[in-house]
Amino acid sequence: MWAVRRAVLRNAAVWNRPAVRVHSMRFSTSRMRGLKQVPDSAWTPYKPDYEDHDDYEKHEDLDYEKDDDFDDYNFDVILRGTDEVRFGRKHMGLVVLPQPIVDAIAACISETNGHTMRHDYLRLVDAHRSSSEITPKGKGRGQKTRRLLRDERERLERGNWDSREVIDMKMPRALPGERVQIVIPGERPAPASLVYPKTRLKPHVIEYGPAETAAYVAAFAPGTYAVAFNVLSELAMRVPGFRPSSILDFGCGPGSALWAAQDVWSSVQKYVGIDSSEAMIDCAKRMFDEMPERQLDRELLRYLAPDQPNTHADLVISSFTLSELPSDAVRQTTVEMLWNNTRDTLVLIDRGAPNPARVVSEARDYLIKLASESDSTVKVGSISVPSGIHTVAPFPNELDDPSNNTPAWFQFVQRVQRPMFTMRTKHSKSNAEVVHYSYVIMRRGERPPDSRGVLDTTPYSYVSVREAQNRPEKYLPDGTQRKTMEQLAREAYYWPRIIMQPIKRKGHVVTDVCTVDGKIERWTFTKTHDKQAYRDARKASWGDLFPHLPKSSIERSHFTPVEGPTPEELKKMNRKQRRSLMHSDD
Q1: Fewer C-beta neighbours within 10 Å, C or N terminus of the chain?
Q2: Ordered DSSP codes for 221-287
Q3: DSSP string covering 446-460, please?
Q4: Closest CA to 437 of 327, 562, 347
Q5: Picking from 18-22, 319-323, 389-393, which range would have the lowest pLDDT averaged per residue?
Q6: What is the helix (H) or strand (E) element at residue 347, kind and residue range?
Q7: How far apart are CA 105 and CA 185, in angstroms?
Q8: With 0-12 CB in 10 A as exposed, 13-18 as middle and 19+ as buried, what is 144?
Q9: Which of 97-101, 189-193, 478-482 shows the highest mean pLDDT?
């Protein structure tokens, strides 16, 4: 500790600052953070050597006696987050529903009985679970399953076979009066209903009447607003010059996407909401009347026709709707109509479950296929727009989804504060929840060219360290000029995206990323390889774009395509064929 005290006094003497008196030999965590954290606006060249903290970087002592002019030194700076990392950050903390929206929802559900709302909420959850818990192809084909199948074959060959033992290991728990079925690879037994606990769920959707609408607004509207706000905020950051003046919201519900868009952009002047439920449209109108008046030309419709006038918009949104459509053919037709009404950007959002994530991924693949078959320019209404297409987020390419035919799927999370009526409807004591979602942002035009490895001829200015401290908005602490938002936006198109929460360990950080090459890789960042990358990796979160290169990388086997029949083909097999498939799996 005496070495730390001497370092503090020497640092103060070098920079002509008053020395910090250390009154105690015990350093608290906050006091040590005050020494070790170096903000951009108040950078100091020396940090004491303290090995008890993982994120404490060691710096070599500088020989100040060689020269008294410290502006000539170019120190090796470890920043508290680079501009690239700040630009690529998608993670945001707890999203709080604005108070006018909370008051409007409370007014809409004020006349609804609480017990009835709880019952309708459970019905909605059953509908979501019935279409969300379908496991992608490959689930149940891991090492443990193969070992159980091998043991079963050995027991059959020896003649020592107990069906109850196999049922205990491989069968789902039977409900009262239910016959147990074999769990085949690629499928998962349907979950039990929350409303009727003794029955299995079958895929279904619910028609939204007044009661179901009240339950949806009370339980799910805060989460849909938080997800839409996160996605649209990312779009505003990634495309700085995008200012939509018109919005088309397919499956608008109570208007959650409009609330988020108005909080992100102030340029919205026209809004067209489409929902097949008359009760949802009435709820949206009432909420618009309850909320503060804004200069907005809004229109609510029951359906979207192929050549319907006044439905073309700069920004088209479909939020938590595609997975509720009856078939894949209807989804393709709907996605094509939405794209034909898009002048600039299309945003598709759905739940973060296997089946809704597959729906979003297939919609993206279909849009890329449509754009490749179209002419050089197309007309959206009376405006000619380029026919090309590129993915803004979450994929850094236009290649196939790397999670296709794998047990995994792309999903992201967002925390939201629950209002009191949401806590009562869900019978929850916590005022915060985590919403899982999948999304894709598609934009017209070709992807900006890759500038990685290309010599930048833009003239940069380098200034002294002392001048950089006086102008932190333009220069980095080492005297390098900061990049503009346009430069960062072009480079971000080719940054990998973190698809899972980073794993932090002592001296290294492990992250799973989706690369520009369309692969899922596990990257490792070590403290000895690159201190800045290591520091940024420790502060990175799920969903962020990450510009640094790792020390080592390996391909994730969990995202390796699984060979074998598809779930649709498995459903067409009889029991004998399924059992033969199980016995043939090593």
Answers
A1: C
A2: HHHHHHHHHHHHHHHHHHSTT---SEEEEET-TTTHHHHHHHHH-S---EEEEE-S-HHHHHHHHHH
A3: PPPPP-TTSPP-S--
A4: 347
A5: 18-22
A6: strand 342-351
A7: 44
A8: exposed
A9: 97-101
**CA 140/CA 407 separation, integer angstroms:** 9
pLDDT of residue 386: 72
User: In whole angstroms, what is the distance from residue 242 CA to residue 366 CA?
Assistant: 24
What secondary structure does DSSP assign to 373-435, as a single string?
Answer: HS-SEEEETTEEEE--EEEEES-SSSS--TTTTSS----EEEEEEPPHHHHHHHT-S-SEEEE
Measured on CA atoms in the order 466, 472, 478, 482, is the torsion positive or negative?
negative
How many Cα neighbours within 13 Å face the side chain of 436? 13
Amino acid letter, residue 142: G
CB-based contacts of 273, cutoff 8 Å, min separation 6 = 249, 252, 255, 258, 281, 284, 298, 299, 300, 301
Which stretch of DSSP H or E encloses residue 301? strand 297-301
Question: 319 near 224, Cβ under 8 Å?
Answer: yes
In angstroms, the CA 447 to CA 83 distance is 22
Helix (H) or strand (E) holding 314: strand 313-319
CB 192 within 8 A of CB 173: no
pLDDT band at 164; cut points 50, 70, 90: very low
Measured on CA atoms in the order 550, 554, 557, 559, is the torsion positive or negative? positive
Do 259 and 269 contact (CB within 8 A), yes or no? no
Please state, as a whole number, how many other Cβ atoms lie within 10 Å of the Cβ of residue 47: 17
